[in-house]
Design brief:
By secondary structure, the chain is an alpha/beta fold. Among the domains are: 15-82; 86-181, OB fold (Dihydrolipoamide Acetyltransferase, E2P); 457-508, no CATH class; 515-761, Ribonuclease Z/Hydroxyacylglutathione hydrolase-like (Metallo-beta-lactamase, Chain A, 4-Layer Sandwich), CATH 3.60.15.10. The chain has an eight-stranded mixed beta sheet, covered by helices on one side. Strands 16-17-18-19-20-21-22 form a seven-stranded mixed beta sheet. It has a five-stranded mixed barrel with strand order 1-3-4-6-5. The radius of gyration is 28 Å and the shape is globular. It is found in: Cell membrane.
Length: 769
Amino acid sequence: MSTVTWERAPDWRLVLPAVGAWLAAWLATEFPSAAMALTVVLLTVTLLAMLLIRRRAWFATVCVVAAAAALATGTVSVRAEARVPEVISAALDSGDRVELRFVLAGLPREGSYGHRLPATVTAIDGVTTQAPVLVFAELPEERPGIGTEMVVETTLKPTATGDDVVAMAFANETPELFAHPHPILEVGNTLRAGFIALAEQLPGAGAMLVPGLAVGDESLVDDQLDQAMKVSSLSHLTAVSGSNIALIVIGIVAFGRLLGWSRPVRIAAAGFALAGFVLLVTPQGSVIRAAAMAVIVLALESFSRPVSGVPVLGLAVIALLVADPWISHDYGFALSAAATAGLLIGTRPVAKWLERWLPPSIALLIAVPLVAQLACQPILLMLDPRLPVYGVIANLLAAPAAPVATVVGLFACLIGALVPPIGLAVAWVAWLPAQWIALIAQTVERLPGAAVPWFSGTFGVLSWVVLCTALALLAPKRVPIRWKQAIVVGLSFSLLIVITQSTLAMLQRPTDWRVVACDIGQGDALLVRSGDATVLIDTGEDAEALHACFAEFGVDQLDLLILSHFDRDHSGAVADLRIPVTAAWLPDTNEARAEPVTATLQLAGIAVYFGARGDSLALGDMSWQVLSPERKADGAPSSATGNDSSLTVLAQPTASCTSSCLSLVALGDLGESAQAPLLELPVAADIVKVSHHGSRDQNAALYALIAARVGLISVGAGNGYGHPTEEALDMLTAAGTTHFRTDTQGHLAVFGDGDALRVWVSKPGSVDE
């Protein structure tokens, strides 16, 4: 088989087309209504570039980039509307319960609120259709395999534009079996289930990792190990790596050569092994990327064409984006492509640079994890704005163990299906390196400064890219010494700022905070410390940002979850909560009682209570009182819906409070008319969570009555709604309330007592009261 070799001058010709196709696919799936217009523009650019190629050579690059991008956007323009069938649109619009028949399309993942089932709809209320959805439900005792067709009563909820599924389905009952998987899929299901049973007989954290490393099943990995793997930058080892496909394909071809097989037989054998492996480990992002590259390599091999890693990766990315433009939003696929590109392009120059101080073998050993970390970090920063300080070291220590655990684990899976005792013995061999990896992760997590805060958002990503670019410019000898000196000075100054800011942020972050408005984008997520208890009011939609806030403020469990209402920017991350929740408080409305999220909470064993005006509870050192909605005269649930059904609460310190004894009013998304009834209640408080992200639909008299010293506005940067509005800010100013906002100031932590009330912000340029 042709081998992928390092090149002194990598072939970059398909790099820009791949990047262009990715960007175009992302834009088109985010704005599908503009996909056709974007395609026309790109095709026009392609034609113009073709006409001008003879004048300037770089027009050829423009032509190819535009053509690749047009293919991706063209796919969106053709498929976007048909992607959401009419029967699904009707179910989403009505909000009624429907009978959903679906085929399990991926491995179920257990969460705090039941299982997440990637699925393909096959029928709704008996009407045949097809579309990707995400089902939240409890599973039967016998775990269904991929390809199993099931049926359940559920309610459909819309997803964000650009999501890889068109709807979410929340079921309050266990789906029933409708049809068994295809026999070919059943083979993979049986092998995985048998291997999970073997792994469950092994001890410790290594047993949790073996199935993921070998067959891509992460179901045994618990939250503690998952967190340790993330902090240590080893999370890619909780699941099967795309590099395993390269090992298998190269191994089959090499074995065939050793036995004297002809080229067609070698290619057929490698293709068969590739298909079987993908069937076994399931088509995850990294697996899809590696499989596409393997198919291209095998095709080139069949024509005796030379193989070069960078063009193969570029072509694979373009082909996958054209086949499924929505994969441009898949973080797993993005991380896999970035890591592969970094290794193909950067390993050799980084190793050469390190050889100035280290032997070549040691330099190469360090260069591989270093380059992969540098390439993936911009994407990881979008998920968690922290730098894994010991990530390279952890990967260096884990590198020898990962392939052994993977290959031996795969053998254990295959042998265990035939002779379980021998399979178990082999699984023990795979357990040893897996346990070593888990030990590394758990040790690194406990080290001081394991994860250093970095700038969040787009600025954080760009600052990391600039830093890496500057470091890259330092390496070549041809760069003038004055430039290098200037870069060193600039980097030193920048790093000093980052280190100083991170250190000051950690030192200044209050430990006695009472209320924290988490910076989770356009949505609400308010943490309240109620004595020894912790309360979360709303979750927002971005689960990763929410959990980053939890980590920053040391929250590892919730005694009470309050959901003001059920818009996605307030409750969208409920299903992704990964910390224990004891109880939930929801608005006592007809809408809430029929809401699928309610059933999901109840199925998870969480005590659910419905609150209305006059209801109260004591929790820790605070008393909590519901201000709205108001039940009907006969005690029936309120008929309010949407924003005006928001569960509005007043939290006040009790006599047992000893520090940061501050009161809070959280107004949810109440509009002006729904705020008016609160004028008849005693609502004065130190802190007000401003309603509806600071929209103009506010009641000035209410804010004057609350007379809060601090107003917290949870709002996303660059949102398209104009939040917060000047009208809302003027109301707060007129009421004597100093406003703070998450879009410009990050996390907002309120603490202190009386005249010493203060607000800590996570982003610079803030003002304390």
